Batch of 4 targets.
Target 1
Amino acid sequence: MQSQDAAPPTAPSRSGPSVDVDRAEAALVEHYPRLVRLAYLVLPPSLGRNRRVVTAHALAQRALPRRRARAAAVPAQSGGAHARSRSRAGDGGESDSGYAYVRCQVLRTALEAGLPLKRAAWPKRSQLPPLLPLVCGLRLFPHSGGADGLSLDQRLSALSGPARAAYVLRGLEGLADDQVRRVLAAAGVDDADAALREADGVPARYALLDSPEFDPCSLQARPTDLVRRRQHTRAALAAAAALAVCGALFGLPDGGWSPDGAAAPAYARNPAAETALDPARLTKVSPTAWESASRTDFSVWPARGDRTGDGALLRRALAVWARPGGSVQVSATPGTPSGGPAGPPQLLYAGTVDSAHVVILYDGLRIVRYAEPKAGDRGAALDFARVDGAGRDEASALVLGRSDGNVRYLTAPWVKKAAERDLLEPDAAALGLGLTGGVTGPLAGPALQTGRCSSWRVLEVTDSAGTRLLTDLGELVPARLTTGRPGSGEETDGTQALRAWAPYACSLAAMRSAGVRDVNAWAYARQPLPDASGTADWVCTRAETWRGGGTRVLAQFHTPGGRLGAVAAKADDVPACGPRDPQVLAGVLWKSRAGNWYLLAAGSPDTTSIGATGGVRATAPGGLLTAPAAQGARAELRGTLEDGRKVSGLG
């Protein structure tokens, strides 16, 4: 019997003896080769022998606890070659708690290293290549063994990680199956019995586990792939150099290699791009080159202006052209690419115009105008205009700047005189504008007029070949005005031609900002009006563009005594009134002074008959039709040409 005063016996601790860092460190130092061999055998062979060796050493070196820990009550060892060498073996008590702890840690991390990586979970540290120890330029692997060792390694590689651990604990540690179960459970294996059953499928050649073939501490060294290593080294050096250059560029002010004003940050650097953006490489033509050149166009314009030597301004203009920033106002005529220059462009002008610094460049396809305020670069503008195929007539002038409703032009070096005319006043004398370094005085811009059209001022330029009229349609290149049958248009330099344009000048507003190259006015018919109202004129105005497409045709009707013509029909992208197919048919509903309504229609001179259907039914031979009609009547026109073709009236 037990006295009531006696204390009851203490229940054994289920958590095992405590382990401090010193005891675990002593066990790790004493049995380091054995722990590394254990990790090497448990790690999956798919890692390769070099990584298995390095990982085994890393797992053993990371097995120490960070502070005093509790060791699971698992046996340290129970026999085998290593068991016989230990003086304190088999009981798994406190004397072996340090070794049991570090072995459990090595085993747990070795099993984790064999787990597959999952996208939905962060990888464990043991699943990643170890940072230390680190071996560069060498491949390490144990000494080769015999055929038996190779056969055993192949059989172990077919097992799962827990099964390999069970086999190694049996053979290397000499543990019985119940002890193996306890060790595996402590290492995190869920089904130790299944691991043991799987390990039973491999013959018990436990002595081979002590062979040099499975010793990761006795190693051979060989170099890695030397050829591939040299290739990778060169690639790494090139990448490091590129990274250093990029870092230096990002560290510079304004994100570039020089102050680029309103340009966006540089996105690429290569020799071709740097050459195109180098102001020192701009093409500058001699002032007399046009006199002996085989062609006269923008390519023989000299560089003019008071800032052609301002490298900073030219650099900003080129940089903004290549990569305009968000604050830059960019405009381009239809069909004009707005990308950067392919090579060094030609400088046509760099100077101060009114309140802005202006640079005009030419790359063989486009005219590019850069303008910035005198103070700073905020509010910069970049304009593109297509000029491929320009000849002497089209290359006579460029819009240099617009200010307060006025336009200044830069004229070609062959232009001798510049003057101003009002198209609505054909009999008025031209007003001289003067030329200073090829720059005209200010001219009222017709493109800015609003409301009632009371004037349309155009630029008249004179050179050795004659006089021509140019009108501003809101773009960099003014449109040339001609008269006459399509394909043989004549310059509007005589009084008769000026009078032909006068009634239709205001209709030019309908052709703004369309990339217009020239506009021709063709008086294709004259028609006697009923009720003794005189004779009306039919004129077709056609705007040709630099890109070929996008043409605009207006059929206009002008009665006696009327100051301006009326648009009777219009169409886009049609061959009518053009040099390829100069035919046109249009009609209008007109009221005479007597109060009668008529359908009037006229076709080009090659029209042999005209017919009307719908609200008005009538036919007439030749190119003119006059038929009574009701107010508001609508009719469809069909005409026949001399070659038998049928044409429809313009809409």
Target 2
Amino acid sequence: MFLTISTTGNPERPATDLGFLLHKHPDRAQAFSTSHGVAHVFYPEASAERCTAALLLEVDPVALVRRSKGKGRGGAPDAALAQYVNDRPYAASSLLSVAMSTVFKSALNGVCRALPERAQEPLPLRIEVPALPARGGAELVRRIFGPLGWTGVEAVAVPLDERFPEWGDSRYVRLVLEGELRLADALRQLYVLLPVLDDAKHYWVAPDEVDKLLRAGEGWLAGHPEQKLITSRYLSRRWGLTRQAAQRLELVRLAESDDLDVDSVDNAVDETTDTEERPVPLAEQRRAAILAALRAAGAHRVLDLGCGQGQLVQALLKDAAFTEVVGVDVSMRALTIAARRLKLDRMGELQARRVTLQQGSLTYTDKRLKGYDAAVLSEVVEHLDLPRLPALEYAVFGAARPRTVVVTTPNVEYNVRWETLPAGHVRHGDHRFEWARAEFRDWAREVADRHGYGVEFLPVGPDDPEVGPPTQMAVFTKTAADNTAHRTEKDNTAHRTEKDDAAHPTEKKGEAA
């Protein structure tokens, strides 16, 4: 990838001042390591009358493939679809944009200790990009750069093959920009607009990209006629981030139109006097109650049985007291979503050692689940058919036997308080049943008695004096290390059921919601 920046001058204000502004000496060729290759900076010409700085990014194709592999939505589409034959090493893209931010960081920020006044002045600039992917063609390039103060915007389409003009033009253009701008402004525009015109990024677009966009777009993006397109493409069409950026840019536009600070415009809410309490979602209250129970039990190694999409696993990992967290679910799709939520592919090594996601059925014994301090069955039991509960009971309390087991399930009596829930309906279409408080307590006490556990019941959510809390929770605590004396004929029956199910598996969807 190749980019040149040229300027002109005279003996009083020599063009070689460009070297001071870029913080790169014209007499030396320099190389800088990047995550995908090596960036070279050199000066093809350097005199008082004319000076040209060139940035050449030498992309390492192997590093590009390795770092893009497995990125899913975060990887550049071209790299994902064609790992070994693609235009990434040759055409200006987000790779060059990131290299610019690394090599010309001070210039992007408008900082030059040697010539501070010069850094704030417009320079006669000529910027050339020989191969720029432009999804939208030369016309889009002119629409994007035209309103930014350039007196000349030349975007010439590159033919597919000069020998065969009938084949037409490629999606690449040769870009030449000419005009008098501050160097920092020109570099910021390129930093944002190179990946915008390419309409692809080689890395995952995280929420902090909104801040990067607003910093680089300060002074020109808020009033740009193509602001919506630029914002959407830069943020890889992530709707939530695009909306957030648009709202913040509108505040900037309003502030600039009235010559005010952004903070003085965005003052409709005084946070110091806003005392209105927003209701905490029941799911958050449930996770908080589970975490409190696990901390009280002194648990460090925790199983989340029926982990679903990983919300509880994520909450457990935020507390350093939980040194090992294992999420188990029968659904591979749920585990895939959980891995994406936890960002396992970008997680640090130390954090990654604390978490494991594995597929497994909760109605079959699994030797991998033995030896843990605690297990959680959060909103799981109601997804099983009642005849299969004994198998789950034996797999958890009889075989795995953690020191503490936390079980939460809906309280059907509270359903009358949900205005949008029709009478006689369960809260979720996959619920096989929902217990009243007495039914849940009878089941929990029988389980505890059979397997040598004590049990305590706690409310989750507002405890209505008439119908109780929306969620009921039981905390089982093992009273003996190996209490086989408590195993009754019912337990043996459960064990036989588990064996029969192993011989004739008929597992149903929703066993681990």
Target 3
Amino acid sequence: MRIQLLGPVRAWRNGAEVALGPPKQRAVLALLASRVNDVVGVESIVDALWGCDMPQTAVNGVHTYVSGLRRALEPGRPRGAAGSVLTSEPGGYCLRLDPADVDAALFTRVHGDARRLRGEGAAEEALRLYERALSLWRGEAYAGVPGPFAAMGRTRLRDLRLTAVEEWAAGLLEAGRPAEPVAELTGAVADEPLREKLRWLLILALYRSGRQAQALRVYEETRRLLSTELGIEPGAELRSLHRRILSGQPEQPDRPEPGEVPGDHRPAAPRNPFHDVPRPFQLPPLARGFTGRVMELALLEKMLDEETAHHAATTPVAVVDGAGGVGKTALVLELAHRLVDRYPDGALYVDLRATGQRSRPLSAAEALAQLLGGLGVDASRLPAETAARATLYRSLLHGRRMLVVLDDADSADQLRPLIPRGTSCVLVTGRRRLAGLAARDGAHLVTVGPLADEASARLLVGLSGGRLDGQDRATARLVALCGGLPLALRVVADGLAARPEVPLGVLVDQYTEEGGRLDRLMVHDDAAASMRCVFETSYAALPADAARMFRYLGLHRGPFTARTAATLAATDRVATGRLLSVLVSHHLLQEEAGHQYRFHPLVGAYAAECALREPPAHRQEALDRLRTGSVDPYPWLLSGDGGWQNICAAAL
């Protein structure tokens, strides 16, 4: 079996082309082939094919497309027999092939080998491999395939191809063969007109081929385009090359100095990649007393290392999500400080303010303005349009190794323009699980839960100013109160340390008494350190129907099922499932084995407060429905056949 992704999606079996069926069926094959030998979940396939516009029949559609692909790829397979090429796995499907039989995977491998040989000085062997890699292309990647995944994959692979063209052309220039890459570079410039490195190479190739006038025309075209589209002048490398052509200075040596080509990845003498701008290092300081998270840190490092090793031209993106107060920012900053030495061009940081107490979330354009400012772009030179800012941002980071930390993200749409292409790394935090960013953009998602009791105790004891030294029983009571949320633990520790004159037992009793628990887990004049305010911002981000469900669930203290939730809120089965999923994705509810749900203890206390926002009569009706057992006697409550008010009236 051989599969082509670098052009129209096609497949061959024993040398004969396979009819792959309708476009979306080919899209399923393209997605599975792009992740060959990995299990791809059904939800990820749905999101990759339809994004936000998924129909009600999307899941059934996926199963239909998979069945069609199995018939096409394994025509001799007995009906009902398990597939050997396209296999069913728990939760999804897997295409089992040698990666060398998928042209995109082969291109990535050969390109990586070419880069390695070039770095080792084996120029001729490297050029042969670059030519082999580029020969695999048969047109635009994923041509004719619909869906968000194909659109993003098309862009990623095009960028990787252009990188290979640049490196191949630079190798030919070093080898004294300037005429050979001119045609390929001309086509690449037409595909990506704002990519300065391509234009630099084309101008140099023309100049060295004796076509000085044409080289100058390309430079002038470049200057006009950058001025018109982005409001900027060409970079220093292009301007320097232009001056040399005009002055008639002797040509450079055939082998440019390392780092001379814009974005050259070979080792270079230390220099400021953004000219006169200091190397940015914007990471906030680490949280005092950080503890635990050993598994999460190891998992994130492993993910990023593997992404960098296997996809050298792809920017690895890791998104850490979790409940408010669970310590997402502290974890990501700890990771960022560990990784920063791997990114010699600096570190950028932006607070996207999705859950800010006093301000709205940043738009992508506003975030790009901050990022470009960190890269030395004066505010007066910022393009007005978001797309132009994103283009300038990616151009400045192209070929650089930069760490970008985006804290408190609101949505995938807010993030996408902020993700550069190439050798940088992006770390993100957010309270919502951004499944679309994983399906469409290949981001790695890691959900962070509460700290274990042992780590919670270490954090509490370490920050309490010695007040809990040797006080195991008091520590255990306070750990149980906080439920493993680092923010709550820090608030309690600060309260203990700030009141040394009050006996420890009195303070512990005050913190752990049942009533008004959230009133004690706050710092006056700092809403960001108030557990109630932290939960309030998550609640405020809910759609109205999910917020209503949250309020009704606040009437129930213990674990509950979807049926219990439907009874309390008087919603049908489909709506109940959807609303519970929304609450889980916002980390205001925990889903457990056996289709059970429960609140974190502190979130449950907040939900109980929110329940009081419902009119007393509505609360009483909900509790009456629960007490009378209307779930079992009246299963049609979950069927969606009419309003619950009419059903209850009929039952009475």
Target 4
Amino acid sequence: MLLGAVLVLLLLGGAGPASAHAALDSTDPGDGTVLQRAPRHVTLTFSESVGLRDDSFRVLDPGGHRVRTGEAGHADGRSDTARVGLPAELGEGTYTVAWRVVSADSHPISGAFTFSVGQPSTTTAAVDTGLSEDPLTATLNKVARYLSYLAAALLIGIAAFVVLCRPPDASALRRPLVAGWWTLLGATLALLVLRAPYEAGTGPADALDAGALADTLTTRPGVLLLARLVLLAPVALFLVRLGRADRHRERRPSTAAVGAVLALALASTWGAAEHASAGIQVPLAVTSFVLHLLATAIWLGGLVALLVTLRAAPDAATVARFSRIALVSVTVLVATGVYQSWRGLGSWQALTGTTYGRLLLAKVALVTVLLAAAAVSRRWTAALATARTPVRQPERERVPQPVPAGGPPPPEPEPAEPAPPTPDDPSTAADDLRRGLRRSVLAEAVVAAVVLVVTTVLTGTLPGRAADEAARAVPAGGVLPASVTTIPFDIGGSGRGTVQITLDPGRTGDNAVQAVVFGPDGALAAVPELRLSFTLPDKDVGPIEARLVDRGGYWSANTLALPLPGTWTMRTTVRVSEIDQVSAERRIRIER
């Protein structure tokens, strides 16, 4: 079951770009803008607080040489910004800014943009920002995260099963408890040493860098992982005490209290590092996440404990107790899950229009199957609780028979052969009920393992609310993200070029337009003509022509009046020769 879950995890969350909670709202200078004077700083604004690295910024001049910058920091003390100082004098031309930060929920994000001083360069520096994740490092990190969730479920769930369900013999549960402890230890160590290369987007070999590991221990994700490692020591002592108490049949209330405190502390190391730690209603979200994780652990870990108990020492009273606890866990799961879904989505459209929403739908479908399997298990449990095993009757006292004088003793009566069990035999029916219960509980455990896989991928995916906020946010410089648009176009056998169009401020009323044409090689391209028009189909407005003027390297129009908000269709026509031209369209959102 564990191997299958890891394979599903690799399929769902394999190599690819990181999908973190933080989203870039704006840049100052804006992407593609042309400034008359060189800026003193480069400032990025995000949808949530971000952490900075030593190499968070790389600024390249038009020739591709790295510009000496100041130390990266937060602008005006705001944790949702990143700023770096530039030299006092920047020459004329196009500069490229590559950036990389760590979002509040511990996932790294990166990107690049350009701005020009004076006028755009005829050539720009080619910068490879690389993958936001190294494929191997990302895969190892995902597997370690999944194993840490699974191990926590085993530890917390099985320990809660022993304390709350009171099985008559819990000795068979020691091995999965020990396995869960060692798995959590190994997974946490792996996450800690992989943290530095995961943030940097480099290979696993960089995990051997002692300096990078020391830097990791000063960050919030590193501190939380270290706290989890420290907590495993008292957890081990608690497990030893729990085993001794079970052998001596001691049921002390203090054992449950200590276990509850340790479980809350362990769950909090996840709650303070995942999506709940950023965004809206953080205290309530962290509390909800911790309760959600504990309920999942008690249910999933309890299912594993129940399977082991049913095989080793089946007991109807233990099964009935777990059934009641599972019902409470499901109630908590549903309540906290609804809240977390609302907080992460933000709108009904995000349910089908974002990766986060589609993963959430898949999780809801799997949880529905899981609840159906749980309902079957409850029916088996109820039937087992009402089944009656026949009470064995004591043997009748044998009356001595008289022995005739001088004769041999009478022969001993032959013992009666036990009757074979019949389908109506209560003991046979109870065995059938236990086998049916084992099968349904096993089905629950398998589906729950897959749900845990989808949850692991979900925690690394950009929530719909964050994506929507980033799309609608107004940057500090006044340019909406939707107003910077790149339109590809075909140049026949020569390849594909692109037109980068910037609207300032990207709102209703007067706008300034700047357009830059790039050739197939990514360098600036000179074209005979560039036309741009805007149409609002919903209101039957347009086309409105933008009267672009060739400024020698880029095209611009000082005034473009867009009278209404809505989703406009922007049509670009590029004349690539005296007789050939190509057109392409993009839909952009213009706010009021």
